[in-house]
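Fold it.
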Amino acid sequence: MISRILIDMMAALRDHTRTLITKGGGAAARETSELAEMSGGVGHTIGSSDSDISYSFESSDFEPNHDSITQPKPSVPIFGIPTPGRDLIEDLDYRQLYSEKIGRNGDMALAEIYRRQGFDGPAELTDAEGIAGLESTGRTRLLRGVSDARHVEEFKFGPLFPGTGGFGHGTYATTDPQRAMQYAHYDPDQVIEMVLHPDARIVDYERLHNEQQQALSQINDELNRLHKMERTPEEEARIEELKEKSFILKDRGRFAAAKGYDAYLVPEATADHYEEWVILNRTALIIQE
């Protein structure tokens, strides 16, 4: 009779121990200890001899506040690919671009280049967690302050305003919160937070400068050649076209957009311990909603 009771208790202890291994936890461990005491130490005997139970119960195995637990990183959403740019330097109508130039609505020549490239399409949108997740992968959070809250929604969904600036025409963004707040008249609702898409085509500033100077030098060489020739009406028209082409491409933002680049970093700003970017392709942006 006693043997039968011991066998039943041993079976119960085995089943309970397997449950403990599956679930884990301090409460289950205490229950096992109490059951072992009721069995007169049978639990210890089974734990050391039963081949089905090989787990050794250490106090640290059931420590409720384990220091090695790592907080999960923010998830990184998957975004679509930006509209790819093309080299349009030899395909643009510079007479048309020159006639538009800069007006009340910004640099309209740049707006036409945006249209040709498809850079005026909508940006990707995400939430604060999505921006944080992109930052965790090494992307730089950029800030753009605007003078009116309406411009925030326009920048996300409306026509892309072709801005102007001393480092090239385009959309300016900074890593300096104070600078962004100044442009936003110290209204945080007028500061746009964003990152460049991981697939954005970013051109090195020195390379951009060299490519621009090479293109302008070629234009100048052709102008010099034509000036030395007896001019026909066709050649006169070509000279005017080359002058207008040179005017358009002397702005580094227009030149970069015409070459198909999405953005470039302004190196002059890094001396002030913040970054300033000129962004040309809105579809290469991921903006916080």
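The CA atoms of residues 38 and 73 lie 46 Å apart.
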